[in-house]
Structures are given as C-alpha cells and as structure tokens.
Amino acid sequence: MTHGIRTDTHTAYPNRGWRDTATRYALLPLRVFLGVTFIYAGLDKLTDSAFMKSGGAGSIGDTMRAARDSAAIPALVDLALKNPVGFGSAIALGELAVGIGTLLGLLGRLAALGGALISLSLWLTVSWASTPYYYGNDLAYLMAWLPLVLAGAPYLSLDAVWQRRRQPAGGYR
C-alpha cells in the first residue's frame, strides 16, 4: 500500500464556503468600477474637443488656471500650464492605460499605483479647495486605489494567469 498525497483531488483553493469565496473576490467590484471609470474618463477627455485646448470654456488650460491659486502645490499646476494640451493628453492616456490595466488585471499593482498617483495629483491641485474635504472626489479615488496597490489583481486577471504559468508542474514551489 502506497501512502502519499492524491494529486487528482488537490486544488490550490479548496472551496470552504461562500464566505471564503466572497473574501477571495472582495476587491473585484472595486477593480471593475475603477477600471471602467478610468477608461471612461480617459476616453471622455480624448474625445472632448473643448477639453483638449489651452484656453476657452471647458478647456484643460482654463481648468488649471482656475485651480492654480487654491491648489496645495501651485508649482505642479504651473508646470502643467507650460503645455496644458500635452498635460491633458498625458492625463487622459494615463487614465486609459490605468483603466485597461486594472480591468484586465495586467500589472495590477502598477496600474493601481498609476491610478493612485493620478488621483493624488488631482486631489492636490483641482480638488484641494473642496470644503469640507470629503466633497472632493479625488481623495476618495486615492483611497479606493490603495487596496489594489497592496493586493494587486490576484484573481480573474492576466496577472493570475501568468502566475499560474510560472509555477512548476504540480503547483508547488
């Protein structure tokens, strides 16, 4: 008689009930929300002809000039005002990349860090003057990104697929 582990019944994540399943996928709704929201925000900026101008109603330039004096770090706004259209394009493309990476779980921690940095920069500039502080949505977005920075995208993601492929045969390290 041979003793050992039956590999045909072993699973990496045994199903212990709905609580374990809920815990495992707890960050998935946040990931989907932030991913879709940032994709939408990036596309909205890229397709808005009024936004991608250095001046005029609804432009990135006028938005930054209006936020400059009330920003926590006016020097950041001054830097962006040197080329407002370039800055607006960089923010829009950054939001698009962060959203796609987050939604697909592609380099999940890096995408979440990018989202956190975008949210931080917007909070320190555009949303800083919001009173009370919790009316500024960029701070809430910053806090929403932090769990994804810490946890990444371990389930239902390209990161998880790559992680499984890197494991040696048999699933043990």
Protein described:
- This protein has helices spanning 18-24, 28-47, 60-68, 74-81, 84-104, 108-125, 137-151, 158-166.
- With 173 residues, it is mainly α.
- Helix 3 (60-68) runs antiparallel to helix 4 and helix 6 (108-125) runs antiparallel to helix 7 (137-151).
- The longest helix has 21 residues, at 84-104.
- The protein starts with 17 loop residues before the first helix and ends in a 7-residue tail after the last helix.
- The model has no long low-confidence stretch (mean pLDDT 88).
Brief sketch in words of this structure:
By secondary structure, this protein is mostly helical. The chain has helices spanning 18-24, 28-47, 60-68, 74-81, 84-104, 108-125, 137-151, 158-166.
Notable characteristics:
173 residues; mainly alpha
Number of DSSP-assigned strands: 0
Write the element-wise H/E pattern from the N-terminal end onward: HHHHHHHH
* Uncertain residue segments: none
| Proportion of residues in β-strands | under 5%
Structural class: mainly alpha
The average pLDDT score comes to 88
